[in-house]
Amino acid sequence: MTTRGELAWLSGFAVIASPCGLAFVLGAGSLVGARLSESTIARLVKWSTLAGLGATLLVLAIMLGTGERRVVVDLGDWVTISRDYHFALKFVFDRLSVPFALLAYTLAGAIAAFARRYLHREPGFNRFFTLYALFLLGMTTTSLAGTIETLFAGWELVGLSSALLVGFSHERAAPARSALWVWCVYRVSDAALVLAAAALHHSAGGGDFDELLGSGLWPHARALPPLDQAHAVGALLLIAAAGKSALIPFSGWLPRAMEGPTPSSAVFYGALSVHLGVFLLLRVSPILDASPALCAATVALGLATALFAHLARGVQTDVKSALSFASLTQVGLITAEVGLGCRYVALVHLLAHAALRAMQFLRAPSMLREAAPRPVATDLARLARSRSSLYRFLMERGYLDLFLLELFVRPFLAAARGCDALERRWTSWLAGAVATSDAAAASIEEFT
What we know:
- This protein is mostly helical.
- The chain is 75% helix and 4% strand.
- It has two domains: 361 residues, no CATH class; 44 residues.
- Helix 14 runs antiparallel to helix 15.
- The relative contact order is 0.08.
């Protein structure tokens, strides 16, 4: 007879297996050329999402019924490097992960129902839902991760699917450029997260959050790393969160991401993906608590982002960009709440804002048709005359794109071109040496 513990384990496994199976079926069908009909894809997406949502609710019901504070689905060590280093695949259902997983499934399901009609007869219908399945798998993996390497795997899936959907209409130049920009910013965020994971592995010998963040339940766990390590690791995690949640100075990619279809704008950059950096800060909040300076930096970064996004929203001329900056304003406030130690307030704020913003993004096309014409150009002209410097600053989005271009992109491209030139010289020299030796061998053979 199945015990409640076994049932909870199986339900927890189903939460992850459901989007994984959907991604495999849709992706394998595309690879082998088996073109599924729109109705078949819609049914697969519907039942897979409902299965994952039902499994999450079942885990929650078991936790409430038995009084268990957490359910662990441990799939064991997948990589072992000596006795001190190991990489485990582990999922944890607790006060933080369960609400976020429920949010991901609920909003993803609602947006999938909308996208079925929005993308009807679209040539990329199957491609959209394949990326949707990868995104949902990444969201659930990240939200339920019990180790930092599991979190990084989900983090990468979210980033990959998000960038590919920004460039969904790849036949046009603008979406492709915007997707590349988003991907480059995500690379900075991912590099910071990898360095933080390496530092935590070096200090603890593994990436299990129970060892890294203390054995207490969230949000009462207390990590006790050395102060210098808390500063370094916490700063890297803050950079990773800033890149994923479009905090200053990485805010420029968020309006560019609006090049994707409206459903992807709603689920990624209005509701779920843009909150993933804040979720990371909530998960590693014990490390933030170990450094008052880091908490102060988190508050300052959140408030600065909220102020900048609030001002930039007022000069946007399209509704999706205005909504993206409005979303960023709230993300900045949630970040400040995390830095102040208001964990439950930040979590409730995140859940409520994500649900509201997703519905606003989905409502945007209809709202534009129904709203009365507004003299936007007149308002902007008046603003330009009265506050020309501020207006120009905000229209240029705080010159953050230029800052990133000069500080990161140009030096990176210069280094890449230098490496390419060095490689070409090296291969040309090798090719010349080989050609010379072949000619010498041929002459010797002819002489003999």
